[in-house]
Amino acid sequence: MVIQRRTFNYQINDFSSLPNPWSISFIPDSVYDETPPLLLTLHSSDEFKNVIIYIRPLVKKIDESLLVKCIVKVLATKGSPVCIMNDSHLFSPSMPLVWKTSFKKFNFLVDQNLYLKNDLLTLQFELNLSNDIEISSIEHVSYTIPSASSRRKKTIMDDLLQFYEKQKYCDIKLQVGNETVQAHRAVLCSRSPVFQEMFETETTNNKKVISDVDMTTLKHMLQFMYTENIENLNFENALKLYSVADKYQYEALRKQCSLILSSNIQSGNVCEILRLSSGCGDDELKTSSFNYIRLHANEVFALGDWKSFVLNNVLLASEA
């Protein structure tokens, strides 16, 4: 039986003024190989009500059940932390590997002097993981993640990120139209097999023209390559980034964008998401789209977008 606990703090800057919708993702570090790493995504699409938490093991499948208990507390400027969520979920090999839970944000928006000093929200996470159905004996491992862009232990990726942000010691220029951004071949190749193949055939050229990505989307992808985090990504940007991640075979980024798209499915965009997920072979996002359609059938079927979708995607539409 494998049991462990991961505890860490996560800070969100400018919390009360974040544009809606917003999403923030991060991967807590772990020193264990027995349990998979977890991707946590915080998402909000309303002004006062809930922050949704998506927790997802970063593996395609699991061979045995994984029990995860998540406790979230808000750190106050005085007094003890306030628990805002205490929930558990059992991941099983036969079920989708996504857990959706939430906490309310209204209370600490009201008392900003206590919870949002300088508009900085500090969340304290405790993740208990077990491959048994009981979490009775926990081996404790503590981490502190002070922000999306920093880590308690400095790594070589932190150094490369600093070089990227300062555009120093870069060995490749990526050109989009009249704009150019510099990066490090090693980072791009380690994240994307498409970049790896591209640079293996062009070892002497230090400039690459990128014709299939706009600069904003390219910078979002580079940000994730160096940090494995994306902050304040709206739906339209996530849609573009999802397609680019699929094209460049960057699976971790595609999964992240898939979670954002899944949490933002609406009647007005479900056809676009369904078409995209089907073309990219994303069964989980495709299933989420179908589930939304079935729950909102009268509304979706009355739309002109759906009628056009059916005409051009007969077989796919028939699955709904």
Automatic annotation (TrEMBL):
Superkingdom: Eukaryota
Gene3D superfamilies membership: 1.25.40.420, Potassium Channel Kv1.1, Chain A
UniProt cross-references to PROSITE patterns, sorted A to Z: BTB (PS50097)
UniProt cross-references to Pfam families, sorted A to Z: BTB
Domain called BTB: residue spans: 170-234
Coiled-coil region: none
UniProt-recorded name of the protein: Speckle-type POZ protein
Native organism: Araneus ventricosus
Gene (UniProt): spop_108
